[in-house]
Sequence to fold (663 residues):
Amino acid sequence: MIARLIDWSARNLMLVLIGAVFAVASGVYALQHSALDAIPDLSDTQVIVYTDYKGQAPQVIEDQVTYPLTTAMLTVPKSKVVRGFSFFGVSFVYIIFEDGTDIYWARSRVLEYLNAAARKLPNGVTPTLGPDATGVGWVYQYALQSKDKSLADLRSLQDWTIRYGIAKAEGVAEVASVGGFVKQYNIIVDPNRLRSLNIPLAKVRDAVRGSNMDVGGRTVELSEFEFVVRGRGYVKSISDLSNVVLKVDKGTPVLLKDVARIELGPDERRGITELNGEGEVASGIALQRFGQNALDVIDNVKARLSDMASALPKGVEIIPVYDRSTLIHDAIETLKRTLTEESIVVALVCIVFLLHVRSALVAIVMLPVGILMAFGAMKVLGIGSNIMSLGGIAIAIGAMIDGAIVMIENAHKHLERAPPDKPRLEVLIEAASEVGPALFFSLLIITVSFLPIFTMESQEGRLFSPLAFTKTFSMAAAAILSITLVPALMVLFIRGKIIPEHKNPINRFLIWVYRPLIRGVLKAKTVTILLALVALAVSLWPARQLGTEFMPSLNEGTLMYMPTTLPGLSVTKAAEILQTQNKLIKTFPEVASVYGKAGRAETATDPAPTEMFETVINRLPSWTRRCSFPASQTPGPCRLRPAPTCSRPEFAPPSASRSWERT
Fold:
């Protein structure tokens, strides 16, 4: 049957080429519309329940919020692990689902159970779902810097202008703010005055709360027109708060300014950011929505920032501190370079050993068609493009062209020996049919060689499955093309004078070297086998010394330095240490910028405590790997201890936490 298919393909060039064009078009479409990222997403399907409970200690959060929520989430369908973390003023509950669970199905189930669990929480405490993002969703980070604006002004600009502008970008799940100061009105009451006027503190709170609202008053008709009556009471300045009436004593009002001092100050901070050792900055983090194309999301964010740049106050700069698009472009360029190098090598091999330029075009044309067919299969199965999936294609490139090269060489042999009156088409069909079936099944054997990888589960499965899929798709495409497109291309390109093998000086030299060597090996079969076994035994020792690593080595161009210090570190001291650390790192001539974050951003995806620093180091093009950040240079009693980077959902904070696993 395979021989008949080869015969049909060689005699119906137009149909085969039309099919190849459709395959190329579908592959190009899939390449342009598939999810593209640099690193594979190893995180589980998870839903985060985030609860804010201002001013409460971790133990109170644990007893009143985290415990009721975690116990309620244990019965969520398909959930396998429920983890609860309790911090000062905030609770995180992670519901991790079984592999293959749809994230939006999981979110809807959690929301159903959350509605029932919310009734067990204290009054005024409202749990919310975290964004529909994953552990690798932090695709773009930026900092706001200005010589004329204060940190409070920059944070207000981030919270009320830039954040909403970026949230409009397609594919953005959330824009988190961190750093700077959040403005608020601070009321410092005088307890002696409250006691003398017999005013309890709760009355002050109720009076302020009741005075900061607008109210409606129905409508009034005047001169045949209808007017809406409303009372305007929103607080817009310190003077508005100062004139809040607490009580009336014998016709004389007691105002808030009579018993308290009102001033504009910062809210309590749980996260700070610093840039280049020059001082604190206000920052933002753009989170990619689940399943979106990371490169498109980053481009959309940059476009929104570019549109807003003209509307920013004078002197305010938006400085990118982490941009994953650079790594994505580098990964794409690596695949392009590998494909180009492989095509050049194939062309040189065909030209040097066959002395026929047009024969090289058969393998060169077949290679990109097979790769595009693999991308089409990836799109159908919903597999995104990342370092591992592109690596599977790069691994398969060498084996994909083997069939084409063997068929080309066999066609040359047949043309050398064919009678002059025999049609060239018949000779080529005979040559292709002779080796085509064997090549097809040999490529299929290589195709199934990666099937054991599909038995992997959890994180290792998510890491290596894209590589196995793309390797399998590429080899399957090569097997199909070897009996369809390659015979058709041979008919098109293998023309003209064919130089016999014995007239090629390179072939004669290699045969002269090869024949005595193979005769000697066949005569000394036992010695050859023993030498092979000795070489295998000797190689075991260096193989055992290589070590193991879960993630492949990745030269991203950006370093993540994550030291930790003493638990309970104050925000002020953390800011001092962070600035000193960044100033030291910036002294390296290879460092372009260094951006540090201590504590957590205002997002459910960041449970980092204040004592954990996350430092993003961007390198210059002239990078050399000689980074060392000595802890001894850090001032004060708090010494930094470098720690390996861990995924945010798996981070266990040094506060009250509880974890349940379903078995």
Observations:
- The mean pLDDT is 82.
